[in-house]
Structure formats: C-alpha cells, structure tokens
Amino acid sequence: MAITEQMIDQAFSDLKSTCGGVRNDYFGLIYLEREFEVERDHAVAQVAFGGNDYGIDGFHFDEAKRNLYLFQFKCSDSFTQFKPSFRRLIDDGMERIFGAADQDQHLNAILQQIKSCIIENEAVIERVLIHFVFNGDPAEAERSQVLDKLREDLENKKYLIDQHFGRPVTLVVEFRSGRSRRVAGATHVRKTRTYSVHFEEPLTRTGPNGEILTVGFLRLTDLHKIYEDMGQRLFDRNIRAALSGEEAVNRSLEKSFKRIVLDGSEAASVFAFNHNGVTLSAEALRSSDGVHRITEPRLLNGAQTVATLSRFMKLNSNNQKLAENRDALDGMYVLAKIVTESTPPFVTAVTINNNRQNPVEPWNLRANDDIQLELQDKFAQELGIYYARQENSFENLSDDDLEDLGITEYRAIELKRLAQTFLVSDGDIDKFLRFREVFEDDRIYSQVFNASRLKADGRRIILCYKVQLKLKRFLRDIVERGANKYEYMNRARSLLWALLCQGMLNDPKIESRCQEFGASLSTEAQFTDWASSIATTRCRFIISEVVRDKLYASKAAEGNFSFLRTNAVYKRSMEIAYKRWKWVEKRLK
What we know:
- It contains 27 helices and 15 strands.
- A hairpin with a 4-residue loop joins strand 1 (58-62) and strand 2.
C-alpha cells in the first residue's frame, strides 16, 4: 500500500509529543511499518527524529536475509533534496557508523542504535543496503549526474565497511519510491576496488587538514590494469575524457611506446625522465611486506597516457614482439602523486592545480564543479539535452549511452558557450575581451555560474544560447541593409547577441516561442526568421542610435568602435530600447 499524506499526519499527531521531530520525519516511520512490517513500538527506535543524523534517517536489520538497511528519507517528489544528506553521509556519516576515531556527544540516538545493531549482528551481516527513499520517480534520480557523482563518492567509502567487519561485505545503493514502491532500473551493487601495484621509493607529506600526499614511481602497466577493470570510471575526477589518438601529445606517447616495446631502440627506464607524471586520488594506500595496495583510485591528471597505452596494446595485441618484450613494457614507470585522506573539494582543487601546467583551457578546469554537475542535470531533466561540461565527453557517448541518460537531443551544450550566453544575458559584454578571467577569478566565476541559474527556465537559456549559432547570419542581415552605413556592425558582435537575447526575452509571445524553439539546439528556419527580424527591425536601430550618441559620435567618426564592446554602451542601448519598445532587462536566473 502506498504511503499517503493522511498516514503521515496521523502518525505525527499520535507520536509528536513522545518522539518529537517534525512532520516529515514520520514518512520514514510509515515506510518501515509498510515495507518491512515492523511493529510501531520497534519502528520508532529505528527512525531519526530531529537533527544531527549524519545523513542517516533510519535503519532495519533483516536477520533472515542477513541485510543491514540504512535509509535516507525525503517526504518529497524531488530527488534534489538528497544532495545535502548524501554529502553528510560521505563526509562524516560512514566514518561515524563504521569506524569513528572519536565520539560526538550530540550524536542522534538513531546512530547509537545502528552501532549497537551492528555490534550485536556483526558475525551474520553479509550486505549493507543504503536506500534513498522519496515520493518521486527513482529513474529520474538514477539519471542525475550530481547524484551519480555523490553515489560514487559514497560507494568509495565501502572500504570502511570492509575494515570494520574484517571481510568483504557487499554494499548496495538504491533509489526507491515510497509512493509507488518502484525501484530505479539499475541497482548498484558495489564491491571495494583494491589493486596491488608496483610503487617504488615512496615519500609522504601531510596536508593542512590531515590529507596525505604519497610520491613515488608507479608502474605504467599497473595503471593500465586498473583502467581495464574500471574503464571510464577511472577518469571521473579528470577534467576531460580521453582525447583522440590523433592529438599531438597522444601521437608522441604512442611513438615512445613503440620505440621502447616494439623496436627496443630506447630503454624503458628513460620513460620516467621524459614524462611529467600522473596524479591520483584514492580512498586508501596501504603497504605490507613491500606490496602496495590502492583502494578506489581516480586519475586526476594523466588520462591521455593511460588511454594511449590501452590503444597501443589493443592495436598490437597480435604482435609477437609485445609478448616477447614484456619486460620492457613492465619496465616503464611514471612519477606518481597519490592523494589520500582528503575531501572531494580538496581533490577538485588538486585536479585543477595539477592540470594548470598543461595546455588546458581554464574553462576545462571547472568541469567537475558542483554547479556544472547541477547544470548537466538541469538540461537533461528539463529538456533532454546533454551538457558537455567535460571536453570531448559528448563525442565519446553512444546512442545507447544517450538513451540511458535520458538525452533525446543529438547536439550538446558546450561549457564555454554557455558561459558566454550567461554573460550576454547579464549585459556583461566587456568580459568577452578577457574571457579567461571568468574561469580564473573565483569571484567572477561564481557570479557567472551562480546557483540562481538553476532556477531559470531552461528553454529561455536555449533561446539565448542558439543566437550564437546564427550570429554571423544576423550580422549579415543587418549589413545588407547598408554595407557602408553598417560596416562597424562586426565590431558589435557581443552587443548584438546581448540585445537579441533581450529582444527575445521581452517578446510578448515569449512563452509560445519557448515551446516552439526552446527545447532543441536545432536552429529552425522559423527561429532564424524570428531572431533575424529582431536583429534588423530592433537591434539595428538601437546600435545605430548609440553610434550617433553624443558620447560616442566623435569616436565613431575616427573609426574607433571599441566602445561597442563595453558594458556602458549596453546600458545605453537598453535605455534606448526601453524608450522605443519598453524593453526591460531580463536575466537568465
């Protein structure tokens, strides 16, 4: 039977004087009673009432199945409410439950109950199942890029469970509906990924908050072995996916592998001298009797090296020399930095700084920021459009991958172009002249990619985004009205884009325009005609009047049109637009 609002209200009324908490806490109580047939007297001891729960709202132990269930409950249709709970569970909750090094006197009573249950049933627990229960569609939660990253971070904590029990224990993470009792199509059964690696001459250094940096020489074939097992998941923390083998850096690496392994013309030991090294994060790095074991590694820098070696070995799988010269292959080592005992934000900072020395654009370094993941979810959920926050990520997806992600559009939004779209919608056109600063300056970046963008109508963002795809056409349409008269128009590209954005957003028929053109990146003929009409019958006259304005006329007479790229001229243009057509500034937030 589905959980109803009446059930929750009745339970809250019956128990609030003794159990406390807020109304929504009783959603979990009803769920335990209905799903596991737990008597109320027992269920109240298995649900959290009040705060400081470290991301766990309830638990249940099924002795017959040998399952320990941990729950996060949200009496809501929106899976986005799981995000703070996920982070509490990752940052502190798993450690508190399975391996606390200290104690919290203000711990919610539910965690004390869980710890007692684990101690009593330690010998028989075979599986830990973490269920995120809400009233919405679990399939939507499953497709969320933000929750996928958070789930991975949570699954990486499985080593704490294994350490506590002294043996491998299966971890299962699921999204479930308390209303329909549906489960997401994919159940994530997780086993700890730990690999033995050849890691020579390690040195360690401690960070400001107990982070550990271990530096040494890592055998390249061990990285390849990990990649063969983990696949693209190894690159999840990297700023971009594997690039094409035609890239100059990758061609150079492949030639080096050929000289060392196939030709024997270069010593394997020289590889470490010629390579910049790689950086990884891991949940743990342990050494015993000279053998190093790395738990849940992620490559932060060096994806091209690993991917190129994988391509090289596949291309030469039938080459007898590959087998004959295995010693040379195994003799290639790279300088490796391995970061452990760190938080996800710390790892993100390390990723950015370890890629700065490479020829990587500053916008690529922001690919894994939380706001970028949130935007990826937003476009996928609202419009079925893929947001390529990672360079080359869209090109590496198959049709089946897109379908699994809920993507119906076969063109992707690009991070750099989205940033420019936000700038023009804000009228902040002077930043086009120093665009790199948008991503290099944290203050500017947080203004451009602020949380309010997530509340904007995604269709309106798409309308403004699509203008750039036809901007040359719109400039040409204006210039054709008078080649000499409007020869300066090419200097006003960003201004025209900004004004076209405002013209669209001020259109009285904006809602129908959104429905017609805002759900696809295709530049429909009707969309192009509509935007061209705004460009030629509105923006053309606004910019022309600005050029004749007494503030700028003398500069224009000298052929100096640099003023057309300033925020001040945008403001003056909007004053003209308001006077003529009552346009007001509308932003994408």
